[in-house]
From TrEMBL:
Gene3D superfamilies: Ribonuclease Z/Hydroxyacylglutathione hydrolase-like (3.60.15.10). GO terms for molecular function: RNA endonuclease activity. InterPro entries: MBL, RibonucZ/Hydroxyglut_hydro, RMMBL. It comes from Candidatus Iainarchaeum sp. This is Zn-dependent metallo-hydrolase RNA specificity domain-containing protein.
Length: 329
């Protein structure tokens, strides 16, 4: 089996299996989860995805041809036997187990940490491991999620006690739902949520994930002292405008693993595996070949090769990677 990176990920045996691929026509393609850099659905292809991912991208409403596959259920695509297993990343997000000649696993975006909403990813043994390495250097080692929740709640509590208004930043699909739940569960507050967040919160709830109560933002800033919104919309102008409107001091915090790049307070609440989790996955999965993709792919491949003694390289380097390429003595 060969694995390639070309506008997505392609597994090649006698035929090609496309995963999270763009730029294809009249093909079958797997979608691992609903984030826009993975779900590139267009009308000419047939997509295999979990029912939850299908709901988050509103695939049926948009008229895409989809085959919804439950977690754990085997399915065949062009000679490949496949299975989605939860990746612990966001609702419906799957790792993919692929059998065709070799036994491969694609983690896609994943985390091992359990969150207030989901269990962490299960580590899958395989021969070829294609692993997402967003945080593939030791600098990115996150505290346990419970500790981060506690820190965050302490900070929010301080702000509310000082009569400040709190803006929390989290991606509208995934992080914002966790924030909604955390604010409900630990503070007993119903936050205002940006309309984009509201829409995805509803999908989570329809899929059986209870988030507590929340209010859609719609000229109703007085309804809560906490607002959850996508981080890219948060800037000084917005905070200033909010402050003028509410007549209160406004403090912002962003939930992200990329803390050092933010000008605001951050909490390392990431939906991606940190360096320690990446290393744990590789060791326990015990593959013959590791292909890294995304983020610190060079650095992590070099770590795997040198420190764990397993052949590894970034998937994007070179056109092809197969077990045979690494069969050096
Ligand atoms: Zn993602
Ligand atoms: Zn991603």
């Amino acid at each position: 089996m060969q694995v390639m990176h070309k506008n997505g990920i392609i597994f090649r045996e006698k035929s090609d299996l496309f995963v999270d691929a763009g730029g294809i026509r009249n093909k079958s393609c797997l979608i691992t989860h609903a984030h826009s850099d993975h779900a590139h659905a267009t009308s000419s292809n047939t997509y295999y995805l979990t029912p939850q991912t299908s709901a988050l991208i509103a695939a049926k409403e948009k008229g895409f041809s989809v085959k919804e596959i439950e977690f754990g259920k085997k399915f065949e695509v062009d000679g490949f036997s496949c299975r989605f297993l939860p990746s612990g990343h966001i609702l419906g997000a799957g790792q993919v187990e692929i059998l065709n000649g070799a036994h491969a696993v694609l983690t896609s975006d994943f985390k091992l940490q359990k969150s207030i909403l989901f269990e962490g990813a299960q580590i899958l043994p395989c021969e070829i491991l294609v692993i997402e390495t967003t945080f593939g250097v030791p600098h990115y080692s996150f505290p346990s999620r419970d500790v981060v929740y506690e820190d965050m709640m302490r900070w929010i509590h301080e702000q509310l006690s000082a009569s400040n208004f709190v803006v929390l930043g989290g991606y509208s699909t995934g992080k914002a739902q966790e924030l909604t739940k955390v604010v409900n569960e630990f503070l007993g507050e119903s936050p205002l949520v940006h309309p984009k967040v509201f829409c995805q919160n509803r999908v989570y709830e329809k899929q059986g994930v209870k988030l507590g109560s929340y209010i859609e933002l719609n000229h109703n800033l007085g309804d809560s002292n906490i607002l959850i919104m996508p981080p890219h919309l948060i800037d000084d102008n917005l905070l200033y405008a909010l402050s003028r409107q509410i007549g209160k001091n406004v403090e912002a915090a962003i939930a992200t693993g990329w803390g050092k790049f933010s000008r605001y307070k951050t909490f390392p609440l990431s939906d991606h595996a940190d360096f320690t989790s990446l290393a744990t996955y590789v060791k326990e999965s015990n593959p013959k070949l590791v292909l890294t993709t995304h983020g610190f792919e060079e650095e992590f491949a070099s770590y795997v090769q040198k420190k764990l003694g397993i052949p590894a390289r970034p998937l994007s380097r070179g056109a092809q990677s197969s077990i045979g390429d690494f069969a050096a003595p």
